[in-house]
Specification:
This protein is an alpha+beta fold. The protein contains eight helices and five strands; from the N terminus they run βαββαββαααααα. The protein has two domains: 2-80 and 191-197, Glutaredoxin; 89-188, Glutathione S-transferase Yfyf (Class Pi), Chain A, domain 2, CATH 1.20.1050. The two termini are 24 Å apart. Bound molecules: glutathione. Residues 9-10, 32, 50-53, 65-66, 102, 110 line the site of glutathione.
Length: 203
């Protein structure tokens, strides 16, 4: 399998999951500005959507959309319990979190990277993010991870989005349980390995 990624982008989430799951994989960087891969290929030919993450499977098929990719990977290593069993109520709870992270956190926070966005638009995004983080804080006051005491793919995704807070100058001090969670997840060996591999921290 090959994961197409851009260091620090939302592709960090499946990168973490690949390492947590102990699967064999390779990675290739994509320049999001010119849609070229590290080896010079036209990324749009690999993923016509033009964005990361994209996962190329052994049979050549390409799977896109972070929440789909992380569930696919976790289902390949069921013994790691990175997702609840298919068909269980907990699996739908996981889908609930993945969708919340994708639509309420990732896209809201991601809009702050847009250099064309006005200050008014950015402030509205910050306010929305703060309201959504209040909900995450409530959950993390009750448990170590989003799904309870078991780390799941939703945590890989949430951690990835929270990791943008430094760059976006959006301090998390108002959410102490979220801050502690960020440190807890960052200390996991697979998460550290992904951060080192993407050049985000020193090895
Ligand atoms: N719906 C996609 C969104 C992925 C996405 O937002 N990727 C960003 C990086 S975090 C990207 O590649 N942006 C470049 C672009 O859209 O051209 C998913 O959930 O996987």
């Amino acid at each position: 399998m090959k994961l197409y990624l851009s260091p620090g982008a939302c592709s960090l989430s499946p990168h973490i999951v690949l390492l947590e799951a102990g699967l064999k994989f390779e990675t290739e960087k994509v320049s999001l500005a010119d849609k070229k891969t590290e080896s010079g290929a036209d990324f749009r030919k690999i993923n016509p959507k033009g964005y990361v993450p994209a996962l190329q499977l052994e049979n050549g098929e390409v799977l896109t959309e972070g929440p789909a990719i992380v569930q696919y990977l976790a289902d390949k290593a069921p013994e790691k319990k990175l997702v609840p069993e298919p068909g269980s109520m907990q699996r739908y709870r996981l889908a609930e979190w993945l969708n919340f992270i994708s639509t309420e956190l990732h896209k809201t926070f991601g809009s702050l990277f847009n250099p064309q966005a006005s200050e008014e638009t950015k402030q509205a995004a910050r306010d929305r993010m703060a309201a959504r983080l209040d909900l995450v804080e409530q959950q993390l006051q009750k448990a170590s991870y989003l799904m309870g005491e078991q780390f799941s793919v939703a945590d890989a995704y949430l951690f990835t989005v929270l990791n943008w807070s430094g760059f976006l100058k959006f301090p998390l001090d108002r959410w102490p349980s979220v801050q502690q969670y960020q440190q807890r997840v960052a200390a996991r060996p697979a998460v550290r390995a992904a951060l080192v591999a993407e050049g985000l921290i020193k090895g």
